[in-house]
Structures are given as C-alpha cells and as structure tokens.
Design goal:
The structure is a single chain. The chain has about 190 residues and is α+β, with helices and mostly antiparallel strands. It has 2 domains: about 45 residues; about 140 residues, Immunoglobulin-like (Sandwich), CATH 2.60.40.1890. Helices cover about 20% and strands about 45% of the residues. The chain is built from 1 helix and 12 strands. About 25% of the residues are buried.
C-alpha cells in the first residue's frame, strides 16, 4: 500500500464516521422529541368532559364464552356543581347500562342504577361490588391487554369517549366497594 492510498483510505473512513455520527444525532434528536409524546398517548388513562375527569378506566377480561362484562373507573368532579353520569354507550356490546350491586336479604344482586351522582369537588368510584358500566351481550370477548371505546354522557359536563383497558380476569377481585358509601365521596 502506498502512502497516498493509506491517506485516502483514512479520509474515506473519517467521512463514513462523520456521516454515521450525523445520522445517529438525527435519530437521537427525533427520539428525544417524539418518545414523550408517544409515551403520553400510550399511557393515557385520564379523559375530561367539562369539569369531570375520568381516571383509569378498565375492565376485566371475560373468561370462556361469557356474554357480559363490566367497566370500572374513577369520576373526579373538579367543579363546584354536582353532576351525574347519565348513560354509557359503545359498540362493544348489544346493550351498555349503568349498574350497581344491592344487598337484599343476605344476597348480592346486580341492578340498573340510573344516573350515578358525582358530587362537586368530590368523586364517584365505579368499582367491583358497586357502581359500574355493564356491557350486556358482548360482541366479542374482552381480551387482556386490549382496549375498547365507551362514551360516557354526563348531565352537565356533556360527553366524552374513553378507551377502556382490559386487565386480567381476576383484576380488582379484593375490591368490593361496599365500605365506601356506594362509591361516592366529597374530597
């Protein structure tokens, strides 16, 4: 190898290294700018309708050929006026209703609840053993790790469409909700 060939070879290597470093810097810059945005979208679990914030909506995966499911969440009212969750809707099931559990003569029974109060500067918990969104006649099984949309309609705050995360079949099993004033609380 001659001295001129070695110098040209080094210059070519240096040029390649500079291009690699520039490309790496561009990729890193794009990653730094976009990852927080993508992470925020991927982890979004809070939604707003007027003064109502819907936090951490989730549902249990359905076992086998179960035809019904339930969705749970926290409804936080940041406003100074009481509000009510009037209805829920979605294409996930033939019917979507607001339900609660009642204790009658030593037996737990599930019934439509009608509107669910969300007190001013307070919250309502939709949780196992208490208020929940009941999905009757599921069109497909609820599969752990998947999401589905529901639209919640409030009396004063309007409507909001949320994405409900499906958790394991046994998620929230220890939470009966029965000790918490039926899921409503002033902050």
């Amino acid at each position: 190898m001659t001295r001129g060939t070695t110098a040209a070879s080094r210059e070519l290597k240096d040029t390649k290294m500079i291009r690699f470093a520039q490309t790496a810097a561009r990729v890193l810059t794009v990653a730094i700018v976009t990852l927080p945005l993508l992470g925020g979208l991927a982890c979004a679990s809070e939604y707003k309708a007027g003064e109502i914030e819907v936090e951490h909506p989730w549902a249990r995966a359905t076992p086998g050929r179960a035809k019904n499911g339930a969705a749970f969440m926290k409804l936080e009212n940041h406003g100074g006026t009481d509000d009510r969750l009037m209805a829920a809707s979605g294409d996930v099931a033939n019917r979507v209703e607001l339900h609660t559990h009642l204790h009658e003569n030593g037996v737990m029974k599930m019934r439509p609840s009608g509107p669910i109060p969300v007190p001013a500067h307070g919250h309502a918990m939709l949780q196992p053993g208490s208020f929940h969104v009941m999905m009757i006649g599921l069109k497909a099984p609820l599969v752990e790790g998947e999401m589905f949309p529901l639209t919640l309609t409030f009396e004063k705050s309007g409507s909001v469409t949320i994405n409900v995360m499906v958790k394991s079949v046994g998620a929230g099993a220890g939470n009966t909700g029965m000790k918490h004033g039926h899921g409503m609380k002033k902050n």
